């Protein structure tokens, strides 16, 4: 087909060249200006008329062949597009048929209306959920804005507090120093009041030319050393005192019956503890006669309890003797 068309065009052009001028066939200016045909030269005056017309016909035939090729390509593309459209139409028709069959099956179902009502109810529920979600989203946006404002206000407060904290810390340090000064002065005042109320210190203060504080400081270490030596001596000679007391009790026939280790230990303890308790009570009554504090009350209570120790020891000794006599 592609080979017969150029020969037919050539024959037609030959016959037209015999009976018409060179301007018989017209071509569009756009086709004449095609780059493929711009390099052809126009016939000169020296050429024969027939050769010029033949050359012109060849040019026109080439143009027509080019147009034919372009038209064939366009037809091929359109045919391909038509084929694709036909395939899509077939697919859509099959889809429509499938949907029609599904719709007919649904219509034939006994619970078709119930399914439709159920789907409509689900759609309404989903719409309600969407509305609630939209409302919640709007509320959350409002809360976010409020939270942003609150965060900004808190940030401003934090910045203000960061500026105030160094000043407050400076005032706290001043107050701490003032508290230490007040505590020191309060302790001095309490010491002075105790010295004024205590009869012993009043007596020391009335002594001419002597300072009781220096005297107490001078003799306090000696008193502590004396107590330590006394405790060491008591601890050292405790067993010797028990042996001496047991020996004296065994001399007499009446007390020899009661000369056991437990009773001797209790009696020696009473002999050692009872004078110590009396001495501590005397010191407490002298130095803290008019004081009224919790510490003094506790010390008095402790001394009272310790004063009952000899009586308890004596009671235990009596019970032991009664048990031994049996």
UniProtKB/TrEMBL annotation:
Keywords tagged on the record: Coiled coil, Membrane, Signal, Transmembrane, Transmembrane helix
Transmembrane segments: 263-284, 296-323
Signal peptide: 1-24
Annotated coiled-coil segments of the chain: 89-136
Domain of life: Eukaryota
Protein name, UniProt field: Transmembrane protein
């Amino acid at each position: 087909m592609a080979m017969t068309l150029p020969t037919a065009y050539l024959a037609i052009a030959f016959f037209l060249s015999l009976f018409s001028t060179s301007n018989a066939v017209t071509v569009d200016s756009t086709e004449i200006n095609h780059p493929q045909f711009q390099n052809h030269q126009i016939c000169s005056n020296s050429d024969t008329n027939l050769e010029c017309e033949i050359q012109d016909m060849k040019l026109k035939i080439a143009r027509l062949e080019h147009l034919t090729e372009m038209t064939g390509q366009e037809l091929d593309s359109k045919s391909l597009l038509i084929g694709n459209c036909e395939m899509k139409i077939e697919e859509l028709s099959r889809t429509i048929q499938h949907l029609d069959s599904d719709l007919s099956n649904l219509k034939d179902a006994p619970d078709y209306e119930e399914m439709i009502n159920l789907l409509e109810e689900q759609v309404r529920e989903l719409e309600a959920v969407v509305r609630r979600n939209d409302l919640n989203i709007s509320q959350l946006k409002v809360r976010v804005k409020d939270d942003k404002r609150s965060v900004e206000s808190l940030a401003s407060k934090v910045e203000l507090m960061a500026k105030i904290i160094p000043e407050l810390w400076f005032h706290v340090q001043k107050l701490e120093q003032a508290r230490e000064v007040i505590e020191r002065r309060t302790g001095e005042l309490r010491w002075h009041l105790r010295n004024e109320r205590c009869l012993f210190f009043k007596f020391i203060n009335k002594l001419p030319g002597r300072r009781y504080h220096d005297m107490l400081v001078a003799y306090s270490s000696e008193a502590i050393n004396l107590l330590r030596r006394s405790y060491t001596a008591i601890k050292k000679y405790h067993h010797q005192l028990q042996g001496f007391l047991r020996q004296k009790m065994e001399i007499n026939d009446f007390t020899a019956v009661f000369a056991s280790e437990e009773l001797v230990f209790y009696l020696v303890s009473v002999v050692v503890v009872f004078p110590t308790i009396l001495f501590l009570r005397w010191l407490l009554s002298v130095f803290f006669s008019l004081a009224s504090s919790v510490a003094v009350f506790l010390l008095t209570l402790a001394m009272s309890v310790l004063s009952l120790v000899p009586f308890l020891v004596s009671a235990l000794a009596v019970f032991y003797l009664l048990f031994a006599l049996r």
